[in-house]
Write a structure and sequence with these properties.
The protein is of the alpha+beta class. The chain contains three helices and twelve strands. It is 32% helix and 29% strand. The strands form three sheets. Strands 4-3-1-6-7 form a five-stranded antiparallel sheet.
């Protein structure tokens, strides 16, 4: 069937590959699946990086050069024999190639006990890089390294599932929603779809005073107040609407 719009077009409309793609590309759908995709990539990077970090941690424990380091300072405390919180940034000093060496200050991963300035700390140092060391005698649990991914990946899944729900509503509006004429109230740029135009419209029916926010493809960006566009609603009582222009060829 033709995909040109008119208020008396027979329902239900046919679902085609182009219509399905248009439904996925509608800004309120696209924003959520893009968010899910981005969060998914970030979550996977956290997991992969965490697994790699733990593997390197195990390697340092097994093959690192054992030496004793002095805690020069911790937190903001430079006086000796002062306790500082476990997560304080510390400056270590140890002998490397016959000389005193101070690696960049850092926290001691997995530390639970207070840190005493001036005390000695056994460490294992990468033979090829004195800045790469660990104070641990056993690797931290894998969960500790991948917790960022464990938090992020469910968020990605929820965003994608919400996009599926939005997609279903968009499909329903196309398939069963009458194309009704609506008057443009005003236009603006929207953050979630900067390449589109956000338009507020109201049905061209004196009995229906509702105002809907819809998005218009860039090629229709010249709209102004009082212009008429076609919108689709999943149901007559729906609080949301979709611009019919998304389903037109070339959108």
């Amino acid at each position: 069937m033709s995909e040109n719009f008119s208020s008396d077009q027979p329902l239900p409309r046919a679902m085609t590959a182009r219509v399905r793609w248009a439904a996925w590309n509608e800004p309120r759908v696209r924003a959520w699946w893009l968010t899910g995709l981005i969060l998914g990539v970030i979550g996977l990077k956290f997991v992969v990086a965490g697994i790699h970090e733990r593997g390197h941690e195990i390697w340092l424990i097994e093959y690192g050069k054992r030496t004793a380091a002095t805690i020069e300072w911790a937190g903001n405390e430079h006086l000796k024999n002062r306790p500082e919180p476990p997560d304080s940034v510390v400056q270590l000093r140890f002998q490397w190639d016959g000389k005193a060496y101070e690696p960049p200050p850092r926290t001691l991963e997995g530390r639970k006990d207070f840190i005493t300035t001036g005390s000695t700390l056994p460490i294992r140092v990468n033979p090829n890089d004195p800045d790469d060391f660990t104070w641990l005698g056993a690797p931290l649990p894998l969960l500790t390294h991948v917790i960022g991914g464990i938090i992020t990946l469910p968020m990605a899944l929820m965003a994608f599932l919400w996009s599926v729900a939005k997609y279903a509503g968009t499909r329903r509006a196309w398939r069963n929603g009458p194309a009704i004429e609506a008057l443009v109230v005003d236009t603006r740029t929207a953050a979630i779809a900067p390449l589109c135009t956000a338009v507020r419209v109201t049905p061209d029916d004196n009995r229906d005073k509702r105002i809907y926010a819809v998005f218009i493809p860039r090629r229709h960006s010249g709209l102004a107040g009082g212009d008429v566009i076609l919108i689709l609603r999943p149901s007559p009582r729906s609080k949301t609407a979709i611009a019919a222009a998304w389903f037109e060829p070339g959108s």
